[in-house]
Request: fold
Amino acid sequence: MIFVGWMGMTFCLAGAPTNAAHAKIIFATFAEQESDLVRIQVMIESIRAFAGRFKDAPVWVYLTEGLLASESEHLEEIESLAGEFWLSQAPEEASWFYLSRKVFASAQAEEAAAGKADILAWLDVDTIFLQEPGEFLLPKGKSLGYRPVMHRNISPLYKEPLDDFWKRAYDNMSIPESLAFPMVTVADGEPIRPYINAGCLVVRPERGLLRNWAETFPLLYKDPVLKKMCQQDELKRIFIHQVALSGAIMKHLGRDEMFELSDKINYPIFFREMFGAKRDFHDIREAATIRYESFFDNAPADWDKLLSGPPDRVAWLKAQFQGRLKSKK
Reply:
């Protein structure tokens, strides 16, 4: 399968999704470096073990050309878990901005999933399933399942005026301020303007939201004024793709089509230890999917003793992070 256009080219390399039966849900993710492949192995193993009705769902893994051409053993291991590889390409001019490639990979995944699945769940590589995420089967009339960002980060507070960066971004995206609505950050409970976590997006593929994201992003990264602001502020360079996501959603989706997923989804274990927060994230008893960022790169040996949750899930996590990820990072 080849898609040609603004998104570059995407090739289906395994699993022949074009001929697959219609699925309730497809999971998809993007790998930019070999360490991402290790994390994706863990993600898929958790799906196969704990995702309930979704345990046999297709998992599409989008790769850069470099990773695809590599001889990484992790490619074979992912394939053994029925992961399907797709090649993703992004505009070179976007590559200076961190995390930009996954924007275009998400759009390619959505295009490929249209007509083949009811739901596409676009997930960052550090996602782990601990139980069935029933919320991913969106309620009738809802086209997006989302989580707010963990920290306010570069987002303006809801009642504060926009700064120059956000004013220009809104103008470039043709977003009137009247479209803004409050959401609350996960880690600190701060009321902010729409600023959506790009690591967990659950969409109806035919609605085209991820393609809207990829079409909106160039309105920001091609702007020399915004680029200069990003040169002066590294956080803006890192998270401008998320600004484009929030703008695309506000512009192309009504509030009545949005569904805020519960705290059970995208639960950020050990977030306070890594980045600071008003609350801790040690209780995984209700968590359906968790995120762990870079915590296990240098985790203390007794980290598992801080977690509250089903002993079998804690033991499973301990085995994964003491074994594969620690030994092969």
